[in-house]
Design goal:
Length: about 190
Amino acid sequence: MSLIRLAYASTATFKAMPLEQGIEPNVSRILLSSRRNNPKKGLVGGLYYGDGHFFQYLEGDESAVHELYDRIKRDDRHKDVKTLIEEPLKTRTFSNWSMKYVPVAGDVGRFLRDNKLSKFDPYQFDSILCEQMIELVRASSHDDKLVNYGTRESRAHRTNPDIVSKGIRNGLIAAAVVLVAAVMVGGIVLF
Ligand code: FAD
């Protein structure tokens, strides 16, 4: 088994929708597929989406990376896929992750400012900027805010009456406890 690493740039074909929980909904769906599929193939890496562009980094067995990359290149949610890095790798540098995600704000903003870049355009990245971007992806801990916006489950989750009623029920119980305590204290003071 020979390990390789691969990074590419591409341009989103969808019109960016308002962020929900910090993630563009199309990107959220891509991440969900990635996190479901990549572990089965021993693939790890990270994804960044900003200013209409994707930057993705992948590590894994050569055949698994190539198989996925061929599929990704055919995906009509993006176009103009340009390979930035493709080379052998001695050992994995990402552990325990199927696909990290870097949120829009924060470190990438600093990365752009530090490198005097006015927008996120990975097509222009030289090898140094690629390595910095990979390091940002590697350092990202943003993993738990994904919601599958397109699915029935997620719509149910967002309006789940059980969740709403549980919150209201807890609030009512707390209010009742406070009321009973206030009545008891009031009674003690009066008598
Ligand atoms: P599903 O997981 O069943 O599809 C997932 C969801 O995406 C479904 O809701 C489906 O309707 C929707 N969907 C699928 N294809 C399209 C499409 N072309 N247009 C609109 N909606 C669609 N896949 C990975 O497995 N690992 C990756 O690391 C990965 N990285 C990606 C990075 C980018 C920038 C893009 C654009 C896609 C990436 N994908 C990745 C997705 C990949 O191209 C395939 O869509 C995916 O692997 C198919 O997986 P699946 O058969 O499990 O489909």
